[in-house]
Prior knowledge:
The chain is mainly β. The chain has one helix and nine strands, in the order βββββββββα. Strand 5 and strand 6 form a beta hairpin.
Amino acid sequence: MATERKQYVYTIKDLPLTPIVEDQGISTRFLLGDNLMVSFIENPPGAMFPIHQHECEQIMIMTEGTEEHEIDGKIFPMKAGDVAVHPSNVPHGGKSETGMKAIDIFAPHRPEHLAKMTQYGTLPNEDGTYPAKNNLDQ
């Protein structure tokens, strides 16, 4: 029998931090649905998110700061309030001189991010609750 979900509503700051680009100090707080993944990403000033691509679609909503964002070889200066669409398998990444925060939505789940959650012990429990830990302090 499947485990019954115990949690439906979350507070962002209570989701555990997961490092995703360790050498740049980039971390995020993931929230998983059945078929999508939301990432509340935080890039410190000067951080570079390497150019990469993945099978899942991604929408990035900038909430704070700025970033020189690259999609398919084109540079787009982004600021809070801007939204970028990343189709499946299109190269993208960016550099933030100011630091930035954004909300990334992935559909379906991004396997590389699930692997980071496994590595850092931040995957949710079967009932939808998340570990009460911040792995950046360990």
